[in-house]
């Protein structure tokens, strides 16, 4: 165990270097090959919904939420969640997840999903995503795709290829209405 109290704060840019070090320590260079990391490469995480655990002036844990989209569905992806080894098994990870979920709910995110272990995340409100509903950009064990739904039906709308919300381009549909008192224009014909 460790001495002293843990403070939980909203993540700031000043925390980035320490967060990177924690993630490197927890996941190593292999993290860059993971499906969740590929999604995170698509754009920034949402700092409003990301938190750190502090022991004095040292960051000892971190959780981030990243905006995601698939089909008509939107939400956030939780991760990475990491805690320095000397501070594990003290409930810091669960507290960080709870803070992020509460912030996402208040921000009206429809859901939060992640790639993780059901025994750890299940008690925090996560359930398995139905098989073959979401396509990840890299291989993932489908039993590890979990979601915590805040808006009923939001998980069902999250279908197909999952990516960072900034990468999803939705074509705008432009409707031009013909005024009722004008005749419709005749189609153009090619000159012969």
Please supply descriptive tags for the structure shown above.
nine-stranded mixed beta sheet; disordered C terminus; 5 helices; 192 residues; alpha+beta; globular
Describe the secondary-structure layout.
Elements: E1 7-10, H1 16-27, H2 35-40, E2 51-55, E3 58-71, E4 73-83, H3 92-106, E5 111-115, H4 118-121, E6 127-128, E7 134-135, E8 145-149, H5 154-157, E9 158-164
Parallel strand pairs: 4-5, 7-9
Antiparallel strand pairs: 1-2, 2-3, 3-4, 3-9, 5-8, 6-8
The average pLDDT is: 86
The arrangement of helices and strands along the chain is EHHEEEHEHEEEHE
Strand content: 25-35%
How much helix is in the residues? Answer: 10-25%
Describe the largest sheet: 9 strands, mixed
Please count the beta strands (DSSP E, at least 2 residues each). Answer: 9
Shape: globular
Number of helices: 5
Q: SS-based structural class?
A: alpha+beta
**Quaternary form:** single chain
End-to-end distance? 87 Å
Question: What can you see in these coordinates?
Answer:
With 192 residues, the chain is of the alpha+beta class. Helix content is 21%, strand content 29%. The chain has 5 helices and 9 strands; from the N terminus they run E-H-H-E-E-E-H-E-H-E-E-E-H-E. Strands 1, 2, 3, 4, 5, 6, 7, 8 and 9 form a 9-stranded mixed β-sheet that branches. Strand 4 (73-83), helix 3 and strand 5 (111-115) form a beta-alpha-beta unit. The radius of gyration is 22 Å and the shape is globular. The chain starts with 6 loop residues before the first strand and ends in a 28-residue tail after the last strand. The relative contact order is 0.17. The model is unreliable at 170-179 and 182-192 (pLDDT under 50).
């Amino acid at each position: 165990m460790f001495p002293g109290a843990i403070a939980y704060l909203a993540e700031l840019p000043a925390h980035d270097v320490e967060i990177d070090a924690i993630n490197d320590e927890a996941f190593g260079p292999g993290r860059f090959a993971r499906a969740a990391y590929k999604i995170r490469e698509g754009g920034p995480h949402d700092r409003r919904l990301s938190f750190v655990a502090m022991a004095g002036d040292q960051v000892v844990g971190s959780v981030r939420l990243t905006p995601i989209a698939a089909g008509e569905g939107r939400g956030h992806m939780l991760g990475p969640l990491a805690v320095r080894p000397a501070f594990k098994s003290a409930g810091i990870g669960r507290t960080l997840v709870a803070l992020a979920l509460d912030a996402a709910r208040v921000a009206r995110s429809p859901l939060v999903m992640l790639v993780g272990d059901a025994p750890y995340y299940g008690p925090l409100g996560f359930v398995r995503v139905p098989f073959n509903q979401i396509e990840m950009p890299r291989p993932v064990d489908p039993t590890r795709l979990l979601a915590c739904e805040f808006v009923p039906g939001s998980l069902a709308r999250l279908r197909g290829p999952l990516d960072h919300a900034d990468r999803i381009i939705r074509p705008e549909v432009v409707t031009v209405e013909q005024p009722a008192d004008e005749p419709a224009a005749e189609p153009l014909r090619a000159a012969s």
